[in-house]
Design goal:
about 375 residues, alpha/beta, Spore Coat Polysaccharide Biosynthesis Protein SpsA, Chain A, 13 helices, 12 strands
Amino acid sequence: MWIILAIYAFVLLRASAAFSRLRQPAAGAPRSWSFSVLVLIPARNEASALPLLIADLKAQGGLLPPVRFLVIDDHSQDGTWDAALRAIGDDRRFELLALTDSEGKKAALRQGISTGSEELVITLDADVRVGHDWLGCIASFFQTNRCALIILPVMFSSRGGLTGRLQGAEMLALQMLTSATAAIGRAVMCNGANLAFRRSVWERCGTDRYQSISSGDDLFLLQSMQHKGLGPIHWLHDRRAMAVTDPPSTLGTLLSQRIRWASKSGHYANPLLLFLTGLVAAINLAGVLVWVYAATGWMSWGEAISWTASRTAAEMILLAPVAWWYRRLDAWLLMPLVAVIYPWYALAVAIGSWVIRPQWKGRRISLHTRTAT
């Protein structure tokens, strides 16, 4: 148990050190732009959230490149189409299309990207919020770096009470690993809720075998890029580029989302991601076993408490820079509770990912691949 904890703390230390070395890019927008942008927003049953995002995009300030905002309605049943039409109004930068190429987010991405020729594609989930400098910040970074993929920050909002803040604590750890591994040139994760990439990247990776898996549009795009040697891949360390979304509001929704995430692990190919996934599984299993051992007399209660306290201290110390950067000290303060609850929750998710076929907005998720093309 202690050996697993030592390895876990060492990995967190390396990730925290890498995160602490990150610096915000120099400010300043170009006087002219050499590319155009497609902001693509797949939406399914987001009648209440989508108008808020559209308002955020209408409010983008500063000198912007030529941009087209494209909303793809994925067979919504709650009036998303009408809500989007009202929110768009007469703004000609916006287009609204109905998904006709099958169903699901990947189908929406394929259809949306096929409608234009913009060099930079940015994907947003329909339920996120962005600041007024979001687009200018990303475009300036791309103009300077011309990278193949830009991994952008994503965070849960502080809504949702205690459960929401606990999810925020989990997201802090995920974002630290996302940014730290990207910073050292070994990216393992990205989030399609806020992601930018060259059109040419999608054209080279959009027909591989991972496209038949209904979930994982972001991670499998990254994995395909790495397999094909496409790059560079950068992390944009700028709060202005952040997208914020509300955490799942119910326990059932939360478990369904996490089971969907965990169900993709059987298709991971990145060795570092496999190692990190295994390490997180091991530390959470150990977090369950110390209490089981204490209850059965194989370990003293004092040692179980000492082990859990040591894990908590390591996570609080090493995640502090991340919590400060994301302005989520409220979530960080709950780390002691996370250390006790999270191992049991993670065990439930792991078991669920093996026995439950995950759902997303009323649909069963496909986890099968076809032969690579």
